[in-house]
Amino acid sequence: MSHIILPTAFLPPLARLRTFSGAHVSASLRSLRDFYWPSVPSRLTVPVRKASTRIHDQSVPDSGYASAEEDDDDDDEEGGEEESDGLTDEDEDILRADPFEREFAIKWITGFISRSDVWIEDTLDEAEAETRRELVEEAAQIVSAFAGDDEETECAVTRSFEFNGSVKVELNDAPLSSEDHTSVGLQSWASSILLAEKMCASPGTFGLDKSRPLRVLELGAGTGLLSIVVAKLLEAPTIVATDYHPNVLANLSANVQTNFPCSSSLIDVHRFDWESPDFSHPMDKPFDIILAADVIYHVKHAEWIKGCVEQLLAPNGMFWLMIPLRSTGRHEGMDHTVEAVFPEFETASGLVVLEKKTIGRQGGVGRADEGGYKLFKIRYDLNPPEEVDAPTLVESKHATFNLKKTPADGQKAYYAALKDAIQLARNQVGDELTAWRDAVGKAELNKEMKKTLKAEDEGEGEEEEEE
């Protein structure tokens, strides 16, 4: 590098921010990245080398500093370029480590964020407005990088979890890529941690029955926390953990190996694209349980996931989806996209939401923009016809059935689902078993018993006639 331009020279005055286009601000942010991180690492880290010489005299503020002030004037002086021919790497590090330039850059970028709402609203062009919103998020990433200036590098972190006092999991959280947003699965997010905690506290609630040879699928597995927890809770299940990003899949495989060094084949790590799904092996057979946590980052994701679940969920299977409730940014309100494609079971058929729970923030878990979490319990509405009144399993609601009008295949699926329901009821609402047995009798599920009762009634009638 033959010369280097300093932030005090290339960052525009914030007093005139409303006159700058997204392209102008984008170029400024790119220059700021290039200045502090000329070769982009896996995650932004601010150089912390101590400069032997300061390039600014603190007693004489640089003219460009005023552009970061809250009440700056429009007629800021032009900051001069600092150029040097034949700079060495050490010279460049000294320039980047200069505390005056660093302070100016931080003040500028935080000032930019504080003014961003007005700047975004100033344009009537929706595409330009979206560009500006993305630039504000990029600025927030840079602020986060500055906040981590005490760390020389962002390294992988080994995280240890213990759920319900017995289930222990060790995961590698790899650094996120600053340029590839699809690599978010390299780290463990609060949604998966909270869902894992709930599954360990009450496996039966989630259909995790050790007595059955279950097939379990995790969509957007990321670090694999949910799949690994299920493998530790069940005996010899078939588990497929899927994701899309190559780096995420590599880290996922490593986590499986860490937790099951002698039997890593217990979990099949598989690449799976929701938008263009491939339903060949191991996705060629239905799954009893499908899990997903914090997987909705785009308005189309819920729609794509529904298409996949429709193909992959067994008729009596269950899909558990946990998502964060983000209050700001581009991911705000993503829970509504789920509700739009998965209707309530009283209002539609097919894949429906049987239950929806809102979970508050947990101390020490979750990002600052996560105000809580929503857990969806989704399955097929078997849609049996009307007549016999029977309380539904865990929810204690009511549905009506007429098995005589139901096709044979539908009856078989219904019987299987009801069997699962009774098992769940034993785990959760044992007091309702009596009501269930009454409902089962009314639905003619135990025909042999009815025949026996009829025969006994006829026998008593004959005895009365003889008397």
Automatic annotation (TrEMBL):
This is Uncharacterized protein. CDD domains: AdoMet_MTases. The lineage of its organism: Eukaryota, Fungi, Dikarya, Basidiomycota, Agaricomycotina. It holds the Pfam family Methyltransf_16. GO terms for molecular function: S-adenosylmethionine-dependent methyltransferase activity. Residues 68-93 have a biased composition (Acidic residues). It comes from Armillaria ostoyae. InterPro entries: Methyltransf_16 (IPR019410), SAM-dependent_MTases_sf (IPR029063). Residues 53-94 are annotated as: Disordered. Coiled coil: none annotated.
